[in-house]
Amino acid sequence: xxxxxxxxxxxxxxxxxxxxxxxxxxxxxxxxxxxxxxxxxxxxxxxxxxxxxxxxxxxxxxxxxxxxxxxxxxxxxxxxxxxxxxxxxxxxxxxxxxxxxxxxxxxxxxxxxxxxxxxxxxxxxxxxxxxxxxxxxxxxxxxxxxxxxxxxxxxxxxxxxxxxxxxxxxxxxxxxxxxxxxxxxxxxxxxxxxxxxxxxxxxxxxxxxxxxxxxxxxxxxxxxxxxxxxxxxxxxxxxxxxxxxxxxxxxxxxxxxxxxxxxxxxxxxxxxxxxxxxxxxx
Amino acid sequence: xxxxxxxxxxxxxxxxxxxxxxxxxxxxxxxxxxxxxxxxxxxxxxxxxxxxxxxxxxxxxxxxxxxxxxxxxxxxxxxxxxxxxxxxxxxxxxxxxxxxxxxxxxxxxxxxxxxxxxxxxxxxxxxxxxxxxxxxxxxxxxxxxxxxxxxxxxxxxxxxxxxxxxxxxxxxxxxxxxxxxxxxxxxxxxxxxxxxxxxxxxxxxxxxxxxxxxxxxxxxxxxxxxxxxxxxxxxxxxxxxxxxxxxxxxxxxxxxxxxxxxxxxxxxxxxxxxxxxxxxxx
Lengths: 282, 282
Known about the structure:
The structure is a homodimer.
Chain A: E1 4-9, H1 13-24, E2 28-34, H2 38-46, E3 52-53, H3 56-62, E4 65-68, H4 72-85, E5 90-93, H5 99-104, E6 114-119, E7 140-144, H6 151-163, E8 167-171, H7 173-201, H8 205-211, H9 214-220, H10 227-236, H11 238-261, H12 264-275
Helix pairs in contact in A: 7-11, 11-12
């Protein structure tokens, strides 16, 4: 696989971790960073995530591949303008929603140069300091509306994801957003709400701190996630997320009703149902 | 610390993991297992968690320390009868609720021989095969109503927990149950309900399986927990759990309302509030 000059717009957790793997796998002849934050640019350079920094205005001149790893509301704003300036460069986005992004450039004359991707990896931390080695290995990446991408752009992108150890799934953007609401977006909302519940009810910080077991930590971990990333995701995937959230609230009401009515048989049944998640998650 | 003959009633995840650490720290001259399940007894022997098996009827004759690590509804049933037969043995329970247990033996003539403890550790697995080494190390254990325990029984119990690496907190049983509802019991309910939400909405098992990221796994992990353990906990801590669950549902409704009304500023505020959990959980 020929090395290319790769620009990463957004040198944070996702972009920075990808940069580390592109480097390790020898996929880049040069890694160029673009970031809205001078501090992020400084850290990205200092950690060696990228070789140099450039501006959005110059990125299409300097790079053959441009990867967008910024909040999805910013991708929607930047993507059409980038494609306006593209000749044969490849543009890839790594956002957590896909319908609005693919919709916004569907009839763009350079649509073929763009590949819509969602690597299923993240942590509750953000910024270039949070970037880690081997992040994407053995994880899934979803490629959306691939029939709208040029064959060469798609081919290179698939090879890149294979080289960093990701298995690939294909979906249309609507199906992606629906599934993402179930398996990712709702988890974040429950975790945010659980953190707020505990912070509201438990006024004694020390008690939480001392008593919190691994179970609590794991359910509340995602509550540390950055609103700058997540508000745009919920905004763009509003209908699917609302639909799953309504279902979740009605599931919680079943537990509440069992407790209120002291219906322990039905409570056991609900928990037995929940145990079936074992079939899916080891 | 003098080695004692220690019986463990309930050789599953908690009892089995404790047996491993009692062995490693040389605290037992003999470890005796009691379990309602012959299969658990077989595995506990085979894994060397215990040296021999006995019956409930004989346990007070054979052991100097008796540790109860069974579901809390069974502890309530067994504890008074055990204390009836105790002379100077020590009886310790490891249940996740404390008010009903301590209440049930409050005026028992042998109350002093009993120490109420809740080690803050567990996993979503159960049975002796799930027992792990070093489980309790650097974790907290809450000792409840210690003024009702005899000085020697309390002293030995505290030493035992210190030797297996647990730091100790003291609370009355009511305070314990309140805090446990916040930092442990509610996490399990949200996780059970989240699993049911996803299993209800997402009919394509393969999609969940392929797409589920680490974030989803961590929030839904506890949904694999055993109903035989958890229904009795919710039953005994019903009022506190209901109270926190009501708060949790109203927190989720705030997120729902933001999405419905497209109030993105307030959504960002809610997430910023949730981020404050960082103050408590690293």
